[in-house]
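During data preparation, a discrete fold description was generated, and the record follows.
___
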Amino acid sequence: MGERKADDPPHYYAAHIFVCCNRRPDGHPRGSCAAKGSEKLRDYMKVRAKELGLSSVRVNMAGCLDRCEQGPCMVIYPEDVWYRVTTTAEVDAVLEAHVVRGERVPALMLPPETRG
């Protein structure tokens, strides 16, 4: 699963970024990314991607990505790399390192999890 096949069509976007904007009721034990500011961060990321000239990059709002306790979280495809971003400076770091230079920002990466 997840492996590209030789006859798959080319990627539509060079990078597709999903930012969790799920909102749970206040006080929910798992929390939610929107309550932690993800909507403003997503809006900033969209503007910043345009400023950087990243026309082949799409920034989308996502529903729950099921990593609520670690949020606000985002995932970048096609690499399937997950980040926790809490500030506009961290958004800049991810865009500039991961998307522009093809590097990673290890300090912001979410740890891998085992699915049950």
Notes: The domain at 15-108 is CATH 3.40.30.10 (Glutaredoxin). The mean pLDDT is 91. Residues 5 and 67 are 29 Å apart (CA to CA).
